[in-house]
Automatic annotation (TrEMBL):
SUPFAM superfamilies: OmpH-like. Residues 34-112 form a coiled coil. Residues 1-18 form the signal peptide. It comes from the Bacteria. It comes from Alloalcanivorax venustensis ISO4. Belongs to the Skp family. Keywords: Coiled coil, Signal. Pfam families: OmpH. The keyword Signal applies. This is Outer membrane protein OmpH. The lineage of its organism: Bacteria, Pseudomonadati, Pseudomonadota, Gammaproteobacteria, Oceanospirillales.
Length: 164
């Protein structure tokens, strides 16, 4: 009887392992590779092109003013130097405001993309999990080690791409 109980106790982990199948997904990676996400993010970046161009232009103007102050500052009159410094400060304030505005637009756009894509990602993970007969799917960032055959990220991306 003791031998029988010992044999059963030793085999319990094998039964538990055979029973539950686990998959791992990198949700960020799956989203970033999905065509719809890339399209939406591309549109967001395009909508911010004007702000980026203005930021680049203003940054150049600030650098030009600084360079001028360094090179010619000693030979300028006090009024000219103060005027140039004031111009530089105004440009810096404008640059900072524009940078903050562009960052807010970017954050808002990213949030809108995630609001649309998160339910689709969840559905894609569930579909792949059911198809692969998985009992559990873990986030890859929470896993220290995983065998490559347990990673379903590519399958989730394919599922996302097939969804409308």
């Amino acid at each position: 009887m003791k031998k029988y109980l010992l044999a059963v106790a030793l085999m319990l982990p094998l039964f538990a392992q055979a029973e539950g199948r686990t998959g791992v997904v990198d949700p960020i990676g799956a989203l970033q590779e999905a065509k719809e996400f890339q399209d939406r993010f591309g549109k967001l970046e395009s909508s911010l092109k004007d702000e980026q161009n203005r930021l680049d232009r203003l940054g150049g103007e600030v650098e030009n003013l600084r360079g001028r102050l360094e090179k010619e500052g000693m030979t300028m009159s006090e009024d000219e130097r103060e005027q140039l410094q004031t111009q530089g400060q105004q440009k810096m304030i404008e640059l900072q405001n524009l940078r903050q505005s562009a960052q807010r637009k970017l954050n808002k756009g990213q949030q809108e993309i995630l609001q649309v894509m998160e339910p689709k990602l969840k559905q894609a993970v569930e579909t792949v999990a059911e198809r692969e007969n998985l009992d559990m799917v873990l986030n890859a960032q929470a896993v220290v080690y995983v065998k490559s055959d347990m990673d379903i990220t590519e399958a989730v991306t394919k599922q996302l791409n097939s969804m409308k």
